[in-house]
Amino acid sequence: MGTTAYPGPVPVEIRPAVAELFDDLATVLGPKDPEAAACWCLSYRMSSGDLRMKQAASRASVMRELCAAPVPPGVLAYRHDEVVGWCSVNPRSSYHRLVHSRVIPKVDDQPVWSVVCFVVRPGYRRQGVAAALLDGAIAFARDEGATVIEAYPADNNGKRLSGAFAYTGTVSLFAAAGFVVASETKSKTGGVPRVLMRRSVA
Chain-centre distance of CA 41, in angstroms? Predict the structure, then answer.
């Protein structure tokens, strides 16, 4: 997948998070203090017991390696060449936390891809960036051979989620992109239940 443009309230371009764009990814995910704690969007990918999760610098190195992998770890959103957001999307099998989850079910044996996280930078939120990221994530997964993609959004009934819990996306966001509820889950975000939603990308 190359650059894909999405018109709307904020004209957005979506690009795979390849190695050459790691500094842009760091702008979205990295802390201002390199030694400060930051998730680097690895909490779903790695076991909490992995020693590389113990230090901020190690987490940054892991994400840099993922960006250099044959399949990048997700997609980035740009507005006028300024990075404004990120979406983590990869095969479900690459997310340790999902593979071993007791609260988010495995629906069947299809080789699904998963959308697990959105981050939109302050100043660009509520302007359609998340929707463009989701469209770009779907296109990216399709280009990489995915046939089914799923996500685990908050079923917030239209109520606004606080920023700390908005990373999952919402049912309305995914429904607008053609996803349907495939299963309930035992997972919650900010006290709000999450559901498993799917759509075909073939």
Answer: 8
* Tens-level pLDDT at each residue, the chain (202 residues): 555 665 566 689 999 999 999 999 999 999 887 777 788 999 999 877 665 666 667 889 999 999 999 999 999 999 999 999 999 999 999 999 999 999 999 999 999 999 999 999 999 998 999 999 999 999 999 999 999 999 999 998 877 777 778 899 999 999 999 999 999 999 998 889 999 999 999 8
What range defines the domain where residue 16 resides? 4-200
Beta bridge partners of 189: 192
**How many residues make up the chain in this entry?**
202
Q: Residues near 122 by Cβ (< 8 Å), separated by ≥ 6?
A: none
What is the total count of domains within the chain?
1
Residue 121 is part of a domain; what is its CATH number? 3.40.630.30
Please state the pTM of the whole predicted model.
0.92
